[in-house]
Each structure stands twice: as C-alpha cells, then as structure tokens.
User: Fold histidine kinase from Pedobacter steynii.
Amino acid sequence: MSVSEKRFLDPTILASVLDATNTGIVITDNLLPDNPIIYCNAAFEKMCGYDHDEIIGHNCRFLQNKDRSQEARFEIAEAIRNGENCVVEIRNYTKDGQLFYNQLYLSAVKDLSGNVTHFIGIQNDVTSRKKAEQTLQMNFKETEQKVIDRTKMLKESEEYLSSIVETIRESLLVMDKDYTILSANHHFLNTFKVSLNETKGKLLYDLGNGQWDIPELRLMMEEILPTNNPVLDYEVEHEFPHIGRKLMLLNAHRVELEGQFKDRILLAIEDITEKRAVEQRKDDFLSIASHELKTPLTTVVGYVQMMQRLMPENSSERFRSVVDKTERYVARLNQLLKELMDVSRIQTGNIELHMDYFDFDKMVRETIEGIQAATRGHRIIVKGQPINQCYGDESNLVQVITNLISNAIKYSPDSKEIDIHVSRVSSFIKFSVRDYGLGIKEDDLKKVFERFYRVGEIQKNYPGMGIGLYICDQIIKNHKGTLWVESEPGKGSVFSFTLPVNLDKKAAYEY
Ligand code: ADP
Assistant:
C-alpha cells in the first residue's frame, strides 16, 4: 500500500475511528456564516450532554452558556480571526448546566490558497485535574494564610513580651548557651550607662570592667543549663564603670520557648544598693534606740528592786501588789528590750556564744517547769528519750525552747495541751513542740522566721514583735542545726529543731 492510499481512508471508517476515541472532536466550517459545527464525534456529545442534532449547525459558543466574558473566548476569537492555531483552557457547561473544564486545541484547516476553510477542535475534559489544581491552590492559600496569621500572632506576642521586658524596672539580659548576650532591655542600658552595641554579641564575662567575671558566679551559671538549677539572689558588690560602687542582686534562669528557641539564660539584675542602705539605717536606729532605752531601764529595774527590799513591814496589800506588778511589767519590758538588742547584735554579727558541755535533759526539764508554773490553761507533756550531755550555748538554747513553747501556748488559746518530743536522730538531737492551735498558712511558713514578720490576721489579737522565731533560727544556725515548722491552718503547728550531738567545738566558735 502506498502512502497516499493509507491517507485517504474510507469516510465511514474514519468516522468510526473518531467515534472510538475518548477525546471530543468538532469541526466547524469557517466559510459558512457564524462558523457552525459541521461534525462532532460521540465523545464530544457525551462530554457536553447534547444530542448530535442539537450540536450540528450551531456555533461553539453555546458551550459557554452565560459564562461569556472568559479570557479564553477572546483568545479563540483572535485565533479564528487570524486563521491561527491555539490552545486554551475554557469553562464549558453541559446541557444540564454542570461546569466542566475543557482543554481545547484549535487548529485551522487551510485550502491551497491559504484560506481557512475549517477549524478542528480537539477537546479534553480536564475538570478533575483542574479541581485538583484548585484544591491545591486553596490549600496553598490556606497554608499561606495560616503562616501569615501565625507570624502575626508571634509578632504580637513578641511585642507583648518585649513591652513587659521593657516596662520592668529590673535589668534583664538574655544569653545563649555560651553566655553571649542576645538582648538587653532599656533598664539594663540605663542602669549601667552603656549602649546596646557595647552589650549585644559580647560575652557576659567581658562586659564593663569584668564585673560579672567572678569564679563562683561562673560556676553557678554553668550549672543552669545542664541541671536547670537557677542562680538565686546572688549578691555582687563592685566598682562599676560609669556608676561607681553598687550592690547588685542577681537571679538567673533557663528559658525556653517551644519551637522558637531553647537553652537561653535570662539574667535579672537588681540594684539593691539603696534598699540595703535603708535597711542599714533601720538596723542602726534599732541598735541605737535599744541601747539608749537600756540604760534608764536598768536604773528603773534597780529602783523597783530597791523598793521591794525597802518596803516597810506594815505596807498595805494594795501597795505591795502595785510594786509587784511594776516589777513584773518592768521585767517584761526588759525582756522585750533584750530581744531587740539580740536582733541588732545578730545584724551586726556581734553574737557572743558561750559554748560548753551541759545536761540537755536537765535544761529542758527546768525550762519547762518554769513555763508550766506560769501557765494555767495548758498542760505541757514531754515524751521521748534522754539525751544526756550536749555541747552548746545553754542559755541561748533555753531561750529557743522558751520561745517555741511560749508561742505554742500563745497561738493555741482554745486547746489545753502542748506536746514536746525529744529524741536522738542519727548524730542529731531533735526537739519538737506541737500545739493544736491556729496553725500557719502555707505562704507564711517560711516567712515566720524573718525578722519582724507576723502573720497578718493574728497581729491585732496577739501581742508580739515578730522577732522571737528570727532569734531562735539564728541561734540554731549558730549551733549548726536547723529549725523548721510544719503546720496546718486550724489544726496546729509543730516547730522542730535539730542540733548536732558532737558539735565540733572549733566550727561552732568560728561561725
Ligand atoms: P511574735 O510571736 O512576737 O509575733 P515570733 O517571731 O515568735 O514573733 O513569731 C512570728 C509569727 O509566727 C507570729 O506572729 C505568728 O504569726 C507565727 N507563729 C509563731 N508560732 C506560732 C504557732 N505556734 N502557731 C501559729 N503561728 C505561730
């Protein structure tokens, strides 16, 4: 068979071939008015849902229904006008109005003189691909929107955080794991009179004149990331460049913001120079006032004692009672003044310890007998085991025990019993005082050992200065022991202390 024989197939065979394909094919006659369709195959009919009779003779525009102003239509019109081929994607509609996307290959058929006689349209339904593309596009847009929203949120939270950081009246530095400064707030720059350029990107230890390059501080800072142990209330007194001698309080923590960064260190620096000076002035006042009061009071004590001695045999009962009461109140005043002087001595580090061996059991017994004799409402019950010899400052320890038991009595007005327990735990003496009184709230448990701290609600109803427990704590610390409290509001409290039995004499003196 020759080539020309192959090309000119029987038209019926050709029509069957065209009908067998899945691609829609239409042929329009460009020489007739309005370029009507003169042929369409079965796939085209199926694609658009119109019958053969409804298609032949019509211009292709019926496929676009009312969707006329599509860009693709202008491209097709242009191609037809110029007798050129074109490829477009166009929105078409089936007979029952369903949208489908058509990829249309339009090719112009020309006669020997170059006139366009026909157009052949090859059409593929690309709806599913188009929908997939649209979904993809939508997903992309959604993702893009999410990214925009998230970025906005982060920016807002960053602005929020940085407004807090900038408002805070404390100097803040953020460092990476190698202690390189990543940021510093305004308060830091203002306090140390430095610029951001002098700070950012520098090593903490290279700042200023090396003020933070302290071996002990370095060790603590190095522990923060591996152990998550913060640096708490570390004081640095230093001659700082530009601002002179200052006392700074340092607190450092590991900070982490999920997804954003990890292993950062936040260092907060508080200038406590002024605060400490004010505290010092108060301490000085306390010390001066208590000493000034002590001298006349000692004289008054002497005179009261003299009045008791010189009291005539035949003095009236009333007169005797007035003098006795005066003696009692003066003794109380003396005791209060002694406590105030103790506080100021502790503050100045002038505590004198008179360490010696003494009988701990005897000391406890005599102290409790003394308190019991003056107490009507409560019974003090002692349990536990004998301790025998102990090494310490006996009168200081009497003061601790007296204080704890007096508090137990004072703060349990509605109960009748105070339980004392004495025992030996390993190489320590353990002494506990339990009452069934008011108890202490969780928040106040630690604070009751601070000087002048009194729990709010009870202040008005119970006399006191809030220094007894502070003194007790200091005395026990001087003996290398610990004092603590366990308590439940409304149920009562247990104050306990431990003392090492074999207290190393030298260690105690050196404290
Ligand atoms: P003061 O008793 O003079 O106020 P302290 O230093 O002895 O001073 O006690 C400090 C505070 O601790 C008291 O004001 C009280 O609020 C609380 N406190 C001490 N002991 C007890 C106790 N046994 N039960 C309840 N609260 C107590």
Notes: The longest strand covers residues 244-257.
